[in-house]
Design a protein that fits this description.
about 110 residues; mainly beta; two-stranded antiparallel sheet; 2 helices; about 30% strand
C-alpha cells in the first residue's frame, strides 16, 4: 500500500465503523498511524489494521456514550443515516451549513 495515499474521508464527514456500532464526525486525519504502540497492541491481532494508511480522529457516539475514537481508514464507511451525530463537542469544532454538512469552525482568537 502506498504510504502517501490520499485520505478517503475528510474533516467534517459523518462516518461509521465497519465492525463496531458507533459513528462520528471526523475532526482530524493522520496520514499514517500516529498513536502509541500500547494502543496498537491492545487491538486483537485478527482485526488489527495496518499502520501505513490514514487514521481518523472522530467525535464518536454509540447508544450509551460520547467519546473520541481513533480509527483506521479500512474500518470506516460513510454513514448515510439521516440523523446527525450529537456528540457534545461538535458545536465547539463545527458549524452545520445549509445542506447539513459539518464545516470546521475558524477561530480568530488565540
Amino acid at each position: 500500500m502506498d504510504v502517501n495515499k490520499a485520505a478517503k474521508f475528510g474533516i467534517g464527514q459523518q462516518v461509521r465503523h465497519r465492525h463496531f456500532p458507533f459513528r462520528g464526525i471526523i475532526f482530524d486525519v493522520d496520514p499514517t498511524f500516529a498513536n502509541t504502540e500500547e494502543w496498537w497492541e491492545s487491538i486483537p491481532e485478527e482485526v488489527r489494521p495496518v499502520k501505513n494508511q490514514p487514521f481518523y480522529h472522530l467525535l464518536a457516539e454509540n447508544e450509551s456514550s460520547y467519546y473520541v475514537a481513533y480509527v483506521s481508514e479500512q474500518n470506516l464507511l460513510v454513514d448515510e443515516a439521516p440523523e446527525p451525530v450529537n456528540h457534545p463537542q461538535i458545536p465547539e469544532m463545527f458549524e452545520i451549513d445549509d445542506h447539513g454538512l459539518y464545516k470546521k469552525r475558524t477561530t480568530t482568537a488565540h
